[in-house]
Amino acid sequence: MTMATMDRRRLVGEAQSGTARAAVLGMNDGLVTNVSLILGVAGANADASIVRLAGLASLVAGACSMAVGEYISMQAQREMLERVLAEARQEMTADPDGMIQRLARIFERTGVHGDDALHAAQSVGGDPEKALEMYVRSGLGFNPQELGSPIAAAFSSLVTFAVGAAIPLVPWFLWSGNLASLVSIALAAAFTLGIGAYLGRMSGKGALVSALRQLAVVALAAGTTYFVGRIFRVRAT
After folding, report:
1. What is d(CA 141, CA 144) in angstroms, rounded to the nearest whole number?
2. Relative orientation angle of helices 19-43 and 48-94, to the nearest 10 degrees
């Protein structure tokens, strides 16, 4: 097996498991949510203590929301795939000859024809679990060994959202006013570029283009909330 094939299998496994996706999206969502909220509150001329409180509340609420949402989503996906597996297993038990024919058609799609495809299907069909796995992998398009972990995805979302949300919030515990805002923006921009570059590298679209696109989207979101805060320029006490 070549290194390229191994890398592709690793990427497919990570994508199907949902854990890597939840981690990247969690950190990105936390970063975008909190830098936007912090700049919006700061733009309203709020005291630093109010900014800190709003940022912390957003961090906790957002992390919990992300975790619950990811758990429910992954659990529903897992249960749907488990149902498909159970139904396929029942069909195999009730109609083994029909499953042999399905496997033969799968072999035919890979270039094996006629009696050779049927013979290969019969050989695989001698092991019901192996036959089921091959049918699900090749016929239905998912790996029965990698259905994803709802708990892992939820925990990943919880932690990464909190980390992302903390990045623009930390400066407000050290400074206040314009200095805190500038440091918060700088940190958010740096991490945004890093997330964009990572996504670009993983997708093969190019790290630089992806990083700049990510920065533009985050800047738009943060800038919008900042100007909304400026419109309602009221000191919160």
Report:
1. 10
2. 160
Nearest-CA neighbor of 44 among 234, 237, 225?
Answer: 234
Residues 6+ apart with CB under 8 A from 60: 162
Higher pLDDT, 184 or 5: 184
Distance CA 45, CA 62 (A): 24
What's the Rg (C-alpha) of the chain?
Answer: 25
Spatial CB neighbours of 23, under 8 Å, sequence gap ≥ 6: 156, 157, 160
**Numbers of helices and strands, H then E, in the chain:** 9, 0
Listed residue (67, 78, 73, 75) closest to 23, CA to CA: 67
d(CA 163, CA 212): 21
> What's residue 114's pLDDT?
78
pLDDT tens for residues 112-139? Answer: 877 888 888 888 878 888 888 888 888 8
CA distance 185 to 202: 26
Residue 8: pLDDT over 80? no
Closest CA to 125 of 109, 105, 104: 104
pLDDT at 144 over 60: yes
10: tokens are 């690793």
**DSSP state, 141?**
-
